[in-house]
Amino acid sequence: MPPKKVQAESRKAKEATTTDGPKSTLDVADEEAQSQTNDASSNVPLKRKAPESNEPSPKAPRRSARGAQTTATDPIHIAKFLLSPSSLDLCRPKDEIEDIKNRGFQLRTYASSTFSPFEELACAIILSRPISHALGLRSIRTIFNDPYSFATPRKIREAGYEGVRKALDEARTQHRQKTAEELLILANAVVDTLGDGDEEDVTLEKVRKDSAHELEKEKEILRKSIKGLGKTGLEIFARRIQAQWPEVYPYADTRTLSALNKIGLPNKVESLAKMLDENWGQLGVKDVEGDIDTQKRKALARVLERAVELDLEGNGDAARVEASSLGSS
After folding, report:
1. Calpha distance 315→319 (Å, rounded)
2. Separation between Cα atoms, residue 8 and residue 15, nearest integer Å
3. What are the Cα distances from residue 82, in Å, to 76, 168, 264, 320?
4. How many CA atoms does the CB half-sphere of 9 hold within 13 Å?
5. 327 falls in which pLDDT band (50, 70, 90)?
6. What is the pTM of this model?
7. What is the pLDDT of residue 60?
């Protein structure tokens, strides 16, 4: 073993060489190994800031020009679409669309058929029950088509409670007992109180005459005469019957005004009626019968009804997209 003095000098020399002097072979090898490790680490992809570019980000949501127009679709185009047959499938529940495919377009439906005042009252009673839109419309299709066709008070009275209940059972709806009872009450009231005893009379003209053609009086007579016909049912009836009774026009209840607002139409019925009147030539209404005033009443009632149905079916956005294409065609 070297003397301590020699060991100390050797250690000092080594420290000086490590910090300031030439590196040993072992030191160089260690540094090369460390360098290789760092190089390997540098090959691991890092999260880098995306390069600036005028191109849209590939992850950005795509917005079609057609979809972007839906929020600003011209109300006239919306009304024109709602008045056209093209809007019907968006207004119908899926089971009604299938029913029409299976049974044909002659099938009487709430969305596309003309009903008598008596039938409109029956529909209002059904639709005012706490059931879904689809169940209500299915009930209407069932009772007003073969084999039941309860289109007159006589037909309902002849069927009696059991016959009406059977039809509602076939419709697979809810509240069948209550609804059957109320439809029978309606038929009896129309014959015994609201009419002149004629079981075939579906006009309700006596109601109009007794109320001097004033809507609020008409509603009050109906409410008092027909058990189960409340505020909601009377509003549904008034919204539809204005197509036939000029004294009701223009009419829209709060529920309907909300639907109009959602789809982008004037949410005041007077404003909507004025818009239809002033732009009548642009609306392309061809399947509405009657003189010009009757056509305009029917057009308003149709727009109101389909706005509500679109809302109930959740198809308002789809309708706006379709309506926007009318402006670009």
Report:
1. 6
2. 11
3. 10, 30, 12, 10
4. 5
5. low
6. 0.77
7. 36
